[in-house]
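User: For a reading group we're discussing how well predicted structures match intuition. Take UDP-N-acetylmuramoylalanine--D-glutamate ligase. Before you show the prediction, I'll give you the sequence so everyone sees exactly what went in.
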Amino acid sequence: MYSNPKTVILGAGESGTGAALLARSRGLEVFVSDQSPINEKYRNELIQNGIPFEEGGHSANLLENTTEIIKSPGIPDSAPLVKSAIDKGIRVISEIEFASRYTNASKICITGSNGKTTTTSLLWHMMHTAGLNAGLAGNIGNSFARQVAGQDYDVYALELSSFQLDGMSRFRADTAILLNITPDHLDRYEHDLMKYAASKMRIIRNQTADNAFIWCSDDEVSSKMIKNTPLNQQVFRISLHDQGHEGAFIEDNKIIFNIKGETFSMTIEELALQGKHNIYNSMAAGVAAKLVGIRKETIRQCLSDFQHVEHRLEHVANIHGIEFINDSKATNINSAWWALESQNKPVIWIAGGIDKGNDYTKLYDVVKSRVKALICLGVDNRPLVEAFKDIIPVITETRSAADAVNAAYYLAQKDDVVLLAPACASFDLFENYEDRGRQFKAAVHAL
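Assistant: Thanks. Here is the predicted 3D structure of UDP-N-acetylmuramoylalanine--D-glutamate ligase, as structure tokens, for the group to look at:
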């Protein structure tokens, strides 16, 4: 045990290890503590950089002499050690909050229940194509802290989850994007949608008149929250229904970008990413790109040549006329709905994992119209089975990606789609949603 820690980092995954590297590079006394065994990759990094740590539990005197805790986003505020720290008056912050202290880069921050990975990746693609010295971080790729420590950029596209936003107090987004608010992670918010929504609204915390806020006025919960929130920053709306406002909207089957007196457009058919949800994502990224100074020609080019994000409606293979699609990132009801709704062939649906308080009734209509069989992939499949036993004629339970893919392949016929869209978190059987998606793809390629 380190004898006199000043900064304690809870969790030694990508976020925690990145924070530790940044803290050490800035000369801070730091100690890393993880309740679980630390992944070998991160353990070796801590050892090589001389950063003291413990794993498999927290020491009884861990909080002694501690002035601040940097908490990994997967650790809830209700964890006993976190509650104890708060009771002792110790600051508990996120890795994003911590890293922001050590960079003067412009920060374009994207949140939402669905679409934030696609939007963040699309925005970074635009910035990179335009030649900006841009980083991609947050809930995607290498951690923000790791990048600030190693090769700090001029501008960042930051994907921010509600868990990361919860740990912020002084952080300020230069441009904030709120895509939507639909039920997700309600187990972390006392099953109260408004508490979850309030967490999402922290994306605009501390913004001033010099900053920008992009939001979707078609989203019911976002509209309700914003109606009761004073907005002092520059505001840009995206909508498929309203027209004429600053931001982006649809007119004559074209996206019209209207930003600070400059207007340009492109047809919906030109978008690389099709589907209604991807129109919103493209609009948001396009508005943000224009605000950061990217030329309209570059924005149009990037919106038309962008490649799908891994694990988001990713085509894997077509085997004997059966298409396999990996949407492992569909970890909630709304994103699973979009995945199912976008299919125009009969679906063998692979779903399951850790239920986050899901209301499966919201999927009934789309499931009735598209799904012919359900393959449950999880340790406890009872909520799924109970929800769909009277709706889906064939339901099978599995506990590995390989078994799920084999079962789906056995049930599928030519011109069917096997769709992995779990609607649940992955941590019962997999390391994360990426691990789940990659195991799914490996199993498909092994057929």
